[in-house]
Specification:
Elements lengths: L22 E5 L2 E5 L2 H12 L4 H5 L15 H4 L5 H4 L3 E4 L2 E9 L4 H12 L4 E7 L4 E6 L6 H10 L3 E4 L2 H38 L7 H22 L1 H12 L6 H21 L6 H30 L8 E6 L2 E6 L8 E4 L9 E5 L2 E4 L1 H4 L5 E3 L4 E2 L4 E2 L4 E5 L7 H14 L3 H30 L5 H11 L3 H20 L2 E3 L3 H6 L4 E5 H5 L5 E7 L4 H4 L10 H13 L6 H12 L11 E7 L3 E6 L2 E7 H8 L12 E5 L2 E9 L6 H6 L5 E5 L4 H11 L3 E3 L4 H13 L4 E5 L5 H6 L2 E5 L4 H6 L2 E3 L5 H36 L5 H20 L4
Parallel strand pairs: 18-25, 18-27, 25-26, 27-28, 28-29
Antiparallel strand pairs: 1-2, 3-4, 4-6, 4-7, 5-6, 8-9, 8-10, 10-16, 11-14, 11-16, 12-13, 12-15, 17-29, 19-24, 20-21, 21-22, 22-23, 23-24
Helix pairs in contact: 7-8, 7-11, 8-10, 8-11, 9-10, 10-11, 10-15, 11-16, 11-29, 14-15, 14-16, 15-28, 15-29, 16-28, 16-29, 20-21, 28-29
């Protein structure tokens, strides 16, 4: 609950307000008054960035602002407030992580520059910039560096940055788009006028033009060109200046040199009434380049908005149960344990567990699967999904910041920060290419100058313009962004972008059986019981041996109740259906509970050792012998070192698995499973998979993967359980399938939000397409530059022709990448 500010005190810092109503700020619809311009500026910044809820939840007044407004940090210090950071800063153990919206990013070199400069800031541990989405992901140690310091450093190198919020990010995009359109409109209008005057001189359509008329036309052209150079072209100069200030070069450096050199030469020619002017070339160059940048800007936004628009599905308000009634509150204010009502036809506001009601829910925005999912009490629902039928009463399980949808978007940003090798090669190549362009241009000028050619200067300008490697810088990031947007739409979440590249190198695909190839919906087809030992039953309420089967099933259900493994559900369902007797055992009887990953469960029930799990695990742990009575059983249970039950548990293969495997016959397919070898072999035979290993512990799975990697095999591993986490972490590319455990998702490189294995085929297909597009883009960008270079150096290309060709090259690369989204 927010603190109370006394009357006559500054609403921001709480100090006495001696200025009365001189510094007002409207917060949450109410007018409040500050004590100085500094507090007013900070409060206004909070409001402008949509962070007004800070004032509703703060526990103490903020620090007083800089009354003189002479310190940039006075505006940024507000982001250090813990209550404000709660909304957009994620804790990563001893480090913190934030996603920033960055204004002013124009090319891949901007991303490189930000990463290099922030990496030098004390306390910053990791920086990754997604150029296409204009976002940066920063991880830092809060004990060494404050968030305000990071934002100030961003500002000092020329980039405005604020915590990412979907609405503000969209507003930032529209602001940049409006700026582009203004610059583009001015350049287009002026280019037409200057071209008209230039054509009049070139073709002498006005008759014999004397020197005074030509001088007049040139002077008018200079006046028309000046706003194009100073305003429309400013975006290139600012970008180039940022790079040079930080001792680097980017693609805008040769562009800036070409524009300013041509303009200055033209100004001198007009003043001296001698020499040639190329004002029409300057205007056309800026106009064409702006068109290219604008189309690139719009294409990048189109790719990134698929992910960003997911957040718009989350409603702003929710109906919360408080004070014995349903009250409308902000969804971001909901906390774990709150009860929320979701009416039919409404989007679910937060991740939660259903308490009451049944309905069908559309989760297509997460899974890509448009078939509605039936939901009942104890099922999980996710923020942004659509409740289609009945009303649901749900209990919040995580805050909105940690909702599944927000986690997906955050992981996407992390993925874009991990660039594949081809992207790193392209980035480095483009930077070296810029240096090469500058050197070649200098050599070109020297050569033609030494030949006393009067066109030496203009030939050099053509070289600078024609060979600018803008297309090369766009080749990889544009393709990766479009590919990830398409995968996101298909319900495939990449946690690292270089996984796409590694998928194309895979030779083997290894499947876990349970929950991956099979549905994971287990049922007990056969049970064999033996009497419980007297040491276990003597302290119970009953000693009647006829109750042993019921007690055994209650015991099995109790042991499995805390497990995440899908097999545990079979025992819970079975006891509900077949055992309606009085409860003899409950959770209070259990102690020393321990899950042996991939093996089974051990616990003390009434101080008696009990085990349940795979046959190998139970026989070894209880020192019992195998017997023909439970041949083929999947699960054994022992009490006080005595086998008391054997269970035959069946699962069924997923409906679409065979079709998917038929498309993957070019790979070496195999199964690794902890289930009995006979069951694994049965599934493998039905699916036509030749290599199948059963009875595998997590260590055995890991050993198999490492042995295959030692043979130079590249593996894709698919799994869904806790026992799959070690092998998922070791595989070249790991994929968590469907409703995988949290541990498996954390270890995986790719998460299939849809349990269907068709998503695996989509992933492989998209990875191959993306690799082809990147190669095509790089080949086109390099090919164009190498092809046009001789024409530019030899003086065949005029500056305006070079500008047109360079711009079209960039547009072609961006268009080729956007085809991945179709």
């Amino acid at each position: 609950m927010s603190i109370e500010i006394q009357d006559g005190a500054c609403y921001h810092c709480g100090l006495p307000n001696t200025e009365g109503e001189k510094y007002p700020v409207t917060i949450v619809g109410q007018r409040h008054y500050m004590c100085c311009p500094g507090c007013q500026a900070v409060a206004s910044a909070i409001v402008e960035n949509g962070l007004e809820s800070y004032y509703e939840f703060r526990t103490e007044p903020a620090a007083r602002g800089d009354a003189a407004l002479d310190n940039t940090l006075s505006k940024l210090a507000v982001y250090d407030e813990p209550e404000l950071q709660e909304e957009f800063v994620f804790d990563q153990g001893k480090h913190k992580q934030i996603q920033l919206t960055v204004e002013g990013i124009t090319c891949a070199a901007c991303g490189w520059l930000i990463e290099k400069q922030l990496a030098k800031v004390k306390g910053v541990k990791q920086v990754s910039v997604n150029v296409s989405a204009r976002r940066a992901l920063v991880t830092w140690d809060n004990a060494e560096q404050k968030l305000s310091g990071i934002l100030a450093r961003m500002k000092s190198i020329g980039y405005e940055s604020l915590p990412f919020q979907a609405d503000n990010h969209e507003a930032s995009y529209k602001k940049e788009q409006k700026s582009y359109l203004k610059k583009l409109g001015l350049a287009g209008i002026m280019t037409m006028q200057v071209m008209m005057l230039a054509m009049g001189q070139y073709f002498d359509i006005f008759g014999n033009i004397d020197a005074e008329a030509i001088a007049y036309f040139n002077a008018v052209s200079l006046i028309l060109t000046t706003p194009v150079v100073l305003y429309s072209g400013s975006i290139f100069y600012i970008s180039a200046l940022k790079a040079l200030q930080n001792r680097s070069v980017n693609m805008d450096v040769p562009v800036t040199i070409a524009i300013l050199a041509t303009y200055i030469a033209g100004v001198m020619a007009v003043n001296q009434s001698t020499g040639e002017v190329y004002f029409e070339s300057i205007c056309m160059f800026i106009f064409f380049l702006l068109i290219s940048r604008f189309l690139e800007h719009r294409s990048r936004h189109r790719a990134s908005e698929i992910s960003s628009n997911m957040l718009k599905l989350i409603p702003v308000t929710a109906l919360k149960w408080e004070n014995e009634q349903w009250t409308s509150v902000l969804a971001k204010q909901l906390k774990t344990g709150d009860r929320v009502l979701v009416k039919a036809g409404s989007n679910i506001p937060i991740d939660a567990l259903i308490l009451e009601g049944e309905s069908t829910v559309d989760e297509s925005m997460l899974t890509g699967e448009f078939e509605p999912v039936r939901k009942a009490p104890n099922d999980r629902v996710f923020a942004g999904s659509l409740n289609q039928q009945g009303s649901l009463t749900i209990e919040v399980t995580s805050t909105l910041k940690n909702a599944m949808m927000n986690q997906i978007l955050r992981l996407q940003e992390i993925a874009m920060g991990s660039k594949p090798k081809v992207a790193l090669i392209a980035d480095n190549l483009s930077r070296y290419f810029v240096s090469a362009v500058l050197i070649i241009s200098a050599l070109t000028y020297w050569y033609w100058w030494s030949k006393d050619d009067p066109h030496a200067f203009w030939i050099t300008i053509s070289v600078l313009v024609a060979t600018c490697p803008c297309a090369l810088g766009l080749a990889t990031p544009s393709a990766l962004t479009c590919a990830m947007a398409k995968l996101n739409k298909l319900g495939i979440l990449l946690k690292r972008a270089d996984a796409l590249e590694q998928v194309t190198h895979a030779s083997d695909i290894v499947f876990d059986k349970t929950g991956t190839l099979t549905k994971g919906q287990f049922s007990i087809s056969k049970k064999v019981f033996r009497p419980l030992p007297a040491s276990f039953t003597q302290d119970l309420a009953t000693n009647d041996s006829t109750t042993d089967p019921m007690l055994i099933m209650q015991l099995a259900s109790l042991l499995e109740s805390r497990s995440e493994h899908p097999i545990s559900q079979a025992f819970n369902v079975d006891i509900m259906i077949h055992n309606a007797g009085a409860e003899v055992l409950n959770d209070a009887d259990i102690s020393d509970y321990k899950i042996e990953i991939g093996k089974g469960i051990s616990a003390q029930i009434n101080n008696i050792k009990c085990l349940i799990g795979s046959k190998k695990f139970v026989l070894q742990a209880s020192s019992c012998n195998d017997e023909t009575e439970w041949a083929g059983a999947n699960v054994l249970m022992s009490v006080d070192n005595t086998i008391v039950a054997a269970f035959w548990i069946n699962d069924t293969v997923k409906d679409d698995v065979q079709d998917v495997l038929n498309t993957l016959r070019d790979y070496n397919l195999s199964i690794l499973s902890g289930d009995e070898q006979s069951n694994v072999a049965s599934v493998a035979n039905s699916l036509g998979i030749k290599k199948a290993l059963g009875g595998c512990t997590p260590e055995a799975k890991l050993s198999y993967v490492k042995s295959e990697q030692a043979k130079k095999h590249s593996l894709i591993m698919l799994g869904d359980g806790i026992n799959d986490a070690p092998v998922l972490a070791a595989a070249d590319v790991s994929v968590a399938v469907g409703n995988a455990s949290d541990l498996a998702k954390n270890a995986a490189d790719v998460v299939l939000l849809n349990p269907s294995l068709h998503a695996l085929a989509d992933l492989i297909h998209m990875s191959k397409r993306t690799k082809r597009k990147i190669k095509q883009n790089i080949a086109w960008a390099l090919g164009y530059n190498l092809l046009v270079l001789p024409f530019a150096v030899s003086g065949v290309l005029t500056p305006w022709q070079a500008a047109l060709g360079m711009s079209l090259s960039s547009v072609i690369v961006v268009y080729n990448s956007t085809r991945l989204m179709k």
